[in-house]
Protein backbone atom coordinates (compact mmCIF):
# COMPACT_ATOMS: atom_id res chain seq x y z
CA UNK A 1 0.00 0.00 0.00
CA UNK A 2 1.32 3.43 -0.94
CA UNK A 3 1.88 5.75 2.02
CA UNK A 4 2.71 9.39 2.65
CA UNK A 5 6.44 8.62 2.67
CA UNK A 6 6.11 7.16 -0.82
CA UNK A 7 4.17 10.20 -2.02
CA UNK A 8 6.92 12.40 -0.59
CA UNK A 9 9.55 10.50 -2.62
CA UNK A 10 7.61 11.19 -5.80
CA UNK A 11 7.31 14.88 -4.90
CA UNK A 12 11.06 14.99 -4.22
CA UNK A 13 11.65 13.65 -7.74
CA UNK A 14 9.32 16.24 -9.31
CA UNK A 15 10.23 19.47 -7.47
CA UNK A 16 13.74 19.84 -9.02
CA UNK A 17 12.13 19.73 -12.46
CA UNK A 18 9.92 22.67 -11.60
CA UNK A 19 12.92 24.54 -10.20
CA UNK A 20 14.64 24.22 -13.59
CA UNK A 21 11.39 25.32 -15.26
CA UNK A 22 11.09 28.43 -13.06
CA UNK A 23 14.73 29.36 -13.64
CA UNK A 24 14.21 29.16 -17.40
CA UNK A 25 10.99 31.18 -17.18
CA UNK A 26 12.55 33.83 -14.94
CA UNK A 27 15.67 34.21 -17.07
CA UNK A 28 13.48 35.58 -19.88
CA UNK A 29 10.40 37.02 -18.17
CA UNK A 30 11.97 38.66 -15.13
CA UNK A 31 15.72 39.00 -15.66
CA UNK A 32 15.82 39.45 -19.47
CA UNK A 33 18.95 37.30 -19.80
CA UNK A 34 18.06 35.53 -23.07
CA UNK A 35 16.62 36.79 -26.35
CA UNK A 36 14.21 34.66 -28.45
CA UNK A 37 16.90 33.51 -30.87
CA UNK A 38 19.09 32.48 -27.94
CA UNK A 39 16.20 30.46 -26.51
CA UNK A 40 15.96 28.59 -29.81
CA UNK A 41 19.69 27.87 -29.64
CA UNK A 42 19.33 26.48 -26.11
CA UNK A 43 16.52 24.17 -27.24
CA UNK A 44 18.72 22.90 -30.09
CA UNK A 45 21.53 22.28 -27.62
CA UNK A 46 19.16 20.16 -25.54
CA UNK A 47 17.76 18.35 -28.59
CA UNK A 48 21.14 17.50 -30.13
CA UNK A 49 23.46 17.09 -27.13
CA UNK A 50 22.08 16.54 -23.64
CA UNK A 51 19.01 14.43 -24.51
CA UNK A 52 20.82 12.01 -26.87
CA UNK A 53 23.52 11.41 -24.25
CA UNK A 54 20.86 10.99 -21.55
CA UNK A 55 19.08 8.45 -23.77
CA UNK A 56 22.30 6.54 -24.43
CA UNK A 57 23.23 6.49 -20.75
CA UNK A 58 20.02 4.95 -19.38
CA UNK A 59 19.57 2.63 -22.39
CA UNK A 60 23.09 1.24 -22.03
CA UNK A 61 22.41 0.10 -18.46
CA UNK A 62 19.31 -2.02 -19.09
CA UNK A 63 19.57 -5.82 -19.30
CA UNK A 64 17.90 -6.79 -22.61
CA UNK A 65 18.07 -10.51 -21.71
CA UNK A 66 15.72 -10.01 -18.75
CA UNK A 67 13.00 -8.01 -20.48
CA UNK A 68 9.35 -9.00 -20.11
CA UNK A 69 8.50 -9.29 -23.79
CA UNK A 70 4.82 -9.90 -23.15
CA UNK A 71 4.68 -6.60 -21.29
CA UNK A 72 6.48 -4.88 -24.18
CA UNK A 73 4.09 -6.51 -26.66
CA UNK A 74 1.13 -5.12 -24.73
CA UNK A 75 2.67 -1.66 -24.92
CA UNK A 76 3.23 -2.05 -28.68
CA UNK A 77 -0.37 -3.17 -29.26
CA UNK A 78 -1.69 -0.19 -27.30
CA UNK A 79 0.31 2.22 -29.43
CA UNK A 80 -0.75 0.52 -32.66
CA UNK A 81 -4.37 0.92 -31.54
CA UNK A 82 -3.78 4.65 -31.04
CA UNK A 83 -2.09 4.94 -34.44
CA UNK A 84 -4.97 3.17 -36.22
CA UNK A 85 -7.59 5.34 -34.51
CA UNK A 86 -5.69 8.55 -35.33
CA UNK A 87 -5.11 7.49 -38.93
CA UNK A 88 -8.82 6.76 -39.33
CA UNK A 89 -9.67 10.12 -37.72
CA UNK A 90 -7.25 12.03 -40.00
CA UNK A 91 -8.57 10.26 -43.11
CA UNK A 92 -12.30 10.21 -42.48
CA UNK A 93 -13.08 13.18 -40.23
CA UNK A 94 -13.40 16.74 -41.49
CA UNK A 95 -11.64 17.88 -38.30
CA UNK A 96 -8.82 15.34 -38.60
CA UNK A 97 -5.33 16.29 -39.76
CA UNK A 98 -1.90 14.74 -40.17
CA UNK A 99 -0.28 17.32 -37.88
CA UNK A 100 -2.80 16.87 -35.07
CA UNK A 101 -2.49 13.10 -35.39
CA UNK A 102 1.24 13.38 -34.65
CA UNK A 103 0.61 15.57 -31.61
CA UNK A 104 -2.24 13.37 -30.38
CA UNK A 105 0.02 10.32 -30.63
CA UNK A 106 2.58 12.07 -28.41
CA UNK A 107 -0.08 13.13 -25.93
CA UNK A 108 -1.65 9.68 -25.57
CA UNK A 109 1.38 7.38 -25.67
CA UNK A 110 4.71 9.02 -24.70
CA UNK A 111 5.32 9.10 -20.96
CA UNK A 112 7.82 10.46 -18.47
CA UNK A 113 8.68 7.03 -17.11
CA UNK A 114 12.04 7.61 -15.45
CA UNK A 115 11.49 10.73 -13.34
CA UNK A 116 7.97 10.09 -12.05
CA UNK A 117 7.36 6.47 -13.01
CA UNK A 118 10.30 4.86 -11.22
CA UNK A 119 9.70 6.20 -7.68
CA UNK A 120 5.94 5.70 -8.01
CA UNK A 121 6.27 2.14 -9.33
CA UNK A 122 8.67 1.26 -6.51
CA UNK A 123 6.25 2.63 -3.93
CA UNK A 124 3.27 0.77 -5.38
CA UNK A 125 4.61 -2.60 -6.48
CA UNK A 126 8.30 -2.84 -5.63
CA UNK A 127 11.47 -3.36 -7.65
CA UNK A 128 9.86 -5.70 -10.19
CA UNK A 129 7.55 -2.85 -11.25
CA UNK A 130 10.55 -0.50 -11.56
CA UNK A 131 12.20 -2.97 -13.94
CA UNK A 132 9.07 -3.03 -16.11
CA UNK A 133 8.81 0.76 -16.22
CA UNK A 134 12.48 1.09 -17.19
CA UNK A 135 12.10 -1.56 -19.89
CA UNK A 136 9.12 0.15 -21.51
CA UNK A 137 10.96 3.47 -21.30
CA UNK A 138 13.88 1.99 -23.21
CA UNK A 139 11.54 0.64 -25.89
CA UNK A 140 9.87 4.04 -26.06
CA UNK A 141 13.24 5.63 -26.84
CA UNK A 142 14.36 2.98 -29.32
CA UNK A 143 11.12 2.57 -31.25
CA UNK A 144 8.45 5.17 -30.63
CA UNK A 145 10.49 8.34 -30.19
CA UNK A 146 12.50 7.31 -33.26
CA UNK A 147 9.28 6.92 -35.26
CA UNK A 148 8.09 10.31 -33.95
CA UNK A 149 11.38 11.85 -35.06
CA UNK A 150 10.98 10.25 -38.49
CA UNK A 151 7.46 11.56 -39.13
CA UNK A 152 8.38 15.02 -37.84
CA UNK A 153 11.33 15.10 -40.23
CA UNK A 154 9.08 14.03 -43.12
CA UNK A 155 6.66 16.84 -42.28
CA UNK A 156 9.40 19.46 -42.11
CA UNK A 157 11.15 18.23 -45.25
CA UNK A 158 7.89 18.30 -47.24
CA UNK A 159 7.28 21.82 -45.98
CA UNK A 160 10.80 22.84 -47.02
CA UNK A 161 10.28 21.36 -50.50
CA UNK A 162 7.06 23.30 -51.05
CA UNK A 163 8.32 26.56 -49.59
CA UNK A 164 11.44 26.41 -51.77
CA UNK A 165 9.40 25.65 -54.89
CA UNK A 166 6.92 28.44 -54.18
CA UNK A 167 9.74 30.93 -53.64
CA UNK A 168 11.37 29.96 -56.97
CA UNK A 169 7.96 30.27 -58.84
CA UNK A 170 7.31 33.71 -57.21
CA UNK A 171 10.83 35.06 -57.89
CA UNK A 172 11.16 33.77 -61.45
CA UNK A 173 11.07 36.88 -63.65
CA UNK A 174 12.53 35.31 -66.79
CA UNK A 175 9.21 34.52 -68.42
CA UNK A 176 5.60 35.56 -67.93
CA UNK A 177 4.16 32.07 -68.35
CA UNK A 178 5.01 30.72 -64.80
CA UNK A 179 3.44 33.86 -63.27
CA UNK A 180 0.35 33.72 -65.50
CA UNK A 181 -0.21 30.04 -64.72
CA UNK A 182 0.05 30.76 -61.02
CA UNK A 183 -2.47 33.61 -61.26
CA UNK A 184 -4.96 31.47 -63.18
CA UNK A 185 -4.52 28.35 -61.03
CA UNK A 186 -2.90 28.90 -57.60
CA UNK A 187 -2.65 25.15 -57.07
CA UNK A 188 -0.79 24.51 -60.31
CA UNK A 189 2.64 25.31 -58.91
CA UNK A 190 2.33 22.95 -55.97
CA UNK A 191 1.00 20.14 -58.15
CA UNK A 192 3.70 20.59 -60.82
CA UNK A 193 6.58 20.79 -58.35
CA UNK A 194 5.48 18.10 -55.92
CA UNK A 195 8.61 16.21 -54.83
CA UNK A 196 8.90 12.53 -55.66
CA UNK A 197 8.66 10.02 -52.84
CA UNK A 198 12.27 8.92 -53.25
CA UNK A 199 13.70 12.44 -53.32
CA UNK A 200 11.73 13.19 -50.17
CA UNK A 201 12.94 10.02 -48.43
CA UNK A 202 16.53 10.65 -49.49
CA UNK A 203 16.47 14.08 -47.88
CA UNK A 204 14.77 12.77 -44.74
CA UNK A 205 17.29 9.95 -44.26
CA UNK A 206 20.18 12.34 -44.82
CA UNK A 207 18.87 14.65 -42.12
CA UNK A 208 18.23 11.79 -39.70
CA UNK A 209 21.75 10.50 -40.36
CA UNK A 210 23.05 13.81 -39.00
CA UNK A 211 20.78 13.72 -35.93
CA UNK A 212 22.40 12.18 -32.84
CA UNK A 213 18.99 11.16 -31.50
CA UNK A 214 18.89 8.58 -34.31
CA UNK A 215 21.95 6.83 -32.92
CA UNK A 216 21.75 7.31 -29.17
CA UNK A 217 19.26 4.57 -28.33
CA UNK A 218 20.67 2.14 -30.94
CA UNK A 219 24.21 2.51 -29.62
CA UNK A 220 22.90 2.30 -26.06
CA UNK A 221 20.99 -0.97 -26.53
CA UNK A 222 23.86 -2.42 -28.56
CA UNK A 223 26.22 -1.77 -25.69
CA UNK A 224 23.65 -3.24 -23.27
CA UNK A 225 23.64 -6.50 -25.26
CA UNK A 226 27.46 -6.63 -25.32
CA UNK A 227 27.86 -5.73 -21.65
CA UNK A 228 25.32 -8.26 -20.40
CA UNK A 229 26.35 -11.04 -22.80
CA UNK A 230 30.07 -10.92 -22.09
CA UNK A 231 29.96 -9.16 -18.68
CA UNK A 232 32.14 -6.23 -19.62
CA UNK A 233 32.08 -2.73 -18.19
CA UNK A 234 32.31 0.52 -20.05
CA UNK A 235 35.70 2.21 -19.56
CA UNK A 236 35.44 4.84 -16.84
CA UNK A 237 36.86 7.58 -19.05
CA UNK A 238 34.06 7.03 -21.59
CA UNK A 239 31.29 6.59 -19.04
CA UNK A 240 32.26 9.71 -17.10
CA UNK A 241 32.45 11.73 -20.34
CA UNK A 242 28.88 10.67 -21.16
CA UNK A 243 27.58 11.19 -17.63
CA UNK A 244 28.81 14.77 -17.35
CA UNK A 245 26.40 15.77 -20.15
CA UNK A 246 23.63 13.20 -19.73
CA UNK A 247 22.95 14.20 -16.12
CA UNK A 248 21.92 17.61 -17.43
CA UNK A 249 19.45 16.10 -19.92
CA UNK A 250 16.13 16.38 -18.10
CA UNK A 251 17.10 19.55 -16.24
CA UNK A 252 18.07 21.45 -19.38
CA UNK A 253 14.92 20.19 -21.12
CA UNK A 254 12.77 21.65 -18.35
CA UNK A 255 14.85 24.86 -18.44
CA UNK A 256 14.17 25.11 -22.18
CA UNK A 257 10.47 24.65 -21.52
CA UNK A 258 10.60 27.53 -19.05
CA UNK A 259 12.19 29.69 -21.76
CA UNK A 260 9.41 28.76 -24.16
CA UNK A 261 6.71 29.57 -21.60
CA UNK A 262 8.22 32.98 -20.94
CA UNK A 263 7.98 33.88 -24.63
CA UNK A 264 4.24 33.14 -24.73
CA UNK A 265 1.52 35.65 -23.87
CA UNK A 266 -0.07 33.26 -21.36
CA UNK A 267 1.29 30.51 -19.12
CA UNK A 268 -1.38 28.16 -20.49
CA UNK A 269 -0.29 28.94 -24.04
CA UNK A 270 -2.66 26.57 -25.84
CA UNK A 271 -5.88 27.56 -24.05
CA UNK A 272 -8.25 25.69 -21.76
CA UNK A 273 -9.95 23.45 -24.33
CA UNK A 274 -6.70 22.07 -25.74
CA UNK A 275 -5.35 21.60 -22.21
CA UNK A 276 -8.37 19.48 -21.32
CA UNK A 277 -8.01 17.61 -24.64
CA UNK A 278 -4.39 16.82 -23.79
CA UNK A 279 -5.23 15.64 -20.28
CA UNK A 280 -7.97 13.33 -21.61
CA UNK A 281 -5.57 11.75 -24.09
CA UNK A 282 -2.84 11.47 -21.49
CA UNK A 283 -4.78 10.04 -18.54
CA UNK A 284 -7.74 8.26 -20.18
CA UNK A 285 -7.06 7.30 -23.82
CA UNK A 286 -3.51 6.05 -23.17
CA UNK A 287 -4.37 3.80 -20.19
CA UNK A 288 -7.50 2.51 -21.96
CA UNK A 289 -5.49 1.45 -25.00
CA UNK A 290 -2.90 -0.13 -22.71
CA UNK A 291 -5.60 -2.08 -20.88
CA UNK A 292 -6.80 -3.50 -24.20
CA UNK A 293 -3.25 -4.41 -25.24
CA UNK A 294 -2.49 -6.00 -21.87
CA UNK A 295 -5.63 -8.13 -21.87
CA UNK A 296 -4.90 -9.16 -25.48
CA UNK A 297 -1.53 -10.68 -24.51
CA UNK A 298 -2.80 -12.18 -21.26
CA UNK A 299 -1.28 -9.93 -18.60
CA UNK A 300 -2.85 -10.25 -15.18
CA UNK A 301 -2.30 -9.41 -11.53
CA UNK A 302 0.27 -6.78 -10.58
CA UNK A 303 1.87 -6.82 -14.03
CA UNK A 304 -1.47 -5.76 -15.56
CA UNK A 305 -1.82 -3.03 -12.95
CA UNK A 306 1.70 -1.73 -13.61
CA UNK A 307 0.99 -1.70 -17.36
CA UNK A 308 -2.10 0.49 -16.95
CA UNK A 309 -0.54 2.80 -14.37
CA UNK A 310 2.65 3.39 -16.37
CA UNK A 311 0.49 4.35 -19.37
CA UNK A 312 -1.06 7.10 -17.20
CA UNK A 313 2.28 8.66 -16.25
CA UNK A 314 2.74 12.36 -17.14
CA UNK A 315 3.83 13.57 -20.56
CA UNK A 316 7.31 12.85 -21.93
CA UNK A 317 9.57 15.90 -21.71
CA UNK A 318 11.39 14.77 -24.85
CA UNK A 319 8.15 15.07 -26.83
CA UNK A 320 8.11 18.81 -26.06
CA UNK A 321 11.74 19.25 -27.12
CA UNK A 322 11.00 17.58 -30.45
CA UNK A 323 7.80 19.60 -30.89
CA UNK A 324 9.71 22.84 -30.29
CA UNK A 325 12.56 21.86 -32.59
CA UNK A 326 10.19 20.89 -35.42
CA UNK A 327 7.64 23.66 -34.84
CA UNK A 328 4.59 21.50 -34.19
CA UNK A 329 2.21 22.39 -31.33
CA UNK A 330 4.95 23.02 -28.78
CA UNK A 331 2.44 25.07 -26.76
CA UNK A 332 0.19 22.02 -26.35
CA UNK A 333 3.05 19.71 -25.39
CA UNK A 334 4.54 22.18 -22.89
CA UNK A 335 1.17 22.57 -21.18
CA UNK A 336 0.74 18.79 -21.12
CA UNK A 337 4.11 18.34 -19.41
CA UNK A 338 3.64 21.11 -16.85
CA UNK A 339 0.08 20.39 -15.79
CA UNK A 340 0.40 16.68 -16.42
CA UNK A 341 3.00 16.36 -13.68
CA UNK A 342 0.82 18.31 -11.26
CA UNK A 343 -2.30 16.28 -12.02
CA UNK A 344 -0.53 12.93 -12.34
CA UNK A 345 0.02 12.16 -8.67
CA UNK A 346 -3.64 12.16 -7.57
CA UNK A 347 -4.67 10.49 -10.86
CA UNK A 348 -2.12 7.70 -10.50
CA UNK A 349 -3.01 7.11 -6.86
CA UNK A 350 -6.67 6.92 -7.93
CA UNK A 351 -5.79 4.35 -10.62
CA UNK A 352 -3.84 2.37 -8.03
CA UNK A 353 -6.75 2.37 -5.57
CA UNK A 354 -9.31 1.37 -8.23
CA UNK A 355 -7.14 -1.46 -9.57
CA UNK A 356 -6.47 -2.78 -6.07
CA UNK A 357 -10.19 -2.67 -5.29
CA UNK A 358 -11.09 -4.54 -8.50
CA UNK A 359 -8.36 -7.08 -7.83
UniProtKB/TrEMBL annotation:
<protein>
    <recommendedName>
        <fullName>Auxin efflux carrier component</fullName>
    </recommendedName>
</protein>
<comment type="function">
    <text>May act as a component of the auxin efflux carrier.</text>
</comment>
<feature type="transmembrane region" description="Helical">
    <location>
        <begin position="274"/>
        <end position="297"/>
    </location>
</feature>
<keyword id="KW-0472">Membrane</keyword>
<dbReference type="InterPro" id="IPR014024">
    <property type="entry name" value="Auxin_eff_plant"/>
</dbReference>
<comment type="similarity">
    <text>Belongs to the auxin efflux carrier (TC 2.A.69.1) family.</text>
</comment>
<feature type="transmembrane region" description="Helical">
    <location>
        <begin position="6"/>
        <end position="25"/>
    </location>
</feature>
<keyword id="KW-0812">Transmembrane</keyword>
<keyword id="KW-0813">Transport</keyword>
<dbReference type="InterPro" id="IPR004776">
    <property type="entry name" value="Mem_transp_PIN-like"/>
</dbReference>
<feature type="transmembrane region" description="Helical">
    <location>
        <begin position="212"/>
        <end position="230"/>
    </location>
</feature>
<dbReference type="GO" id="GO:0060918">
    <property type="term" value="P:auxin transport"/>
</dbReference>
<keyword id="KW-1133">Transmembrane helix</keyword>
<feature type="transmembrane region" description="Helical">
    <location>
        <begin position="335"/>
        <end position="354"/>
    </location>
</feature>
<feature type="transmembrane region" description="Helical">
    <location>
        <begin position="97"/>
        <end position="120"/>
    </location>
</feature>
<dbReference type="Pfam" id="PF03547">
    <property type="entry name" value="Mem_trans"/>
</dbReference>
<keyword id="KW-0927">Auxin signaling pathway</keyword>
<feature type="transmembrane region" description="Helical">
    <location>
        <begin position="132"/>
        <end position="152"/>
    </location>
</feature>
<feature type="transmembrane region" description="Helical">
    <location>
        <begin position="242"/>
        <end position="262"/>
    </location>
</feature>
<dbReference type="GO" id="GO:0009734">
    <property type="term" value="P:auxin-activated signaling pathway"/>
</dbReference>
<dbReference type="InterPro" id="IPR051107">
    <property type="entry name" value="Auxin_Efflux_Carrier"/>
</dbReference>
<dbReference type="GO" id="GO:0016020">
    <property type="term" value="C:membrane"/>
</dbReference>
<feature type="transmembrane region" description="Helical">
    <location>
        <begin position="68"/>
        <end position="90"/>
    </location>
</feature>
<feature type="transmembrane region" description="Helical">
    <location>
        <begin position="45"/>
        <end position="62"/>
    </location>
</feature>
Amino acid sequence: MIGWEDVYKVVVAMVPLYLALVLGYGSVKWWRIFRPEQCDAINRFVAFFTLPLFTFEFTAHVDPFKMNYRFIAADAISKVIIVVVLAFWAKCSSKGSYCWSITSFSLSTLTNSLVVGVPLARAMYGQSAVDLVVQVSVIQSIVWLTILLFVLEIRRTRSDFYSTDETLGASNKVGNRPVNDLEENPGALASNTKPSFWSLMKTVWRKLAMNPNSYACIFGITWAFIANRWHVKMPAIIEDSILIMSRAGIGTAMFSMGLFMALQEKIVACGTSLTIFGMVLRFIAGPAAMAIGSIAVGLHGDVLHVAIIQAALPQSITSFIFAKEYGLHADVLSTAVIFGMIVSLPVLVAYYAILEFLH
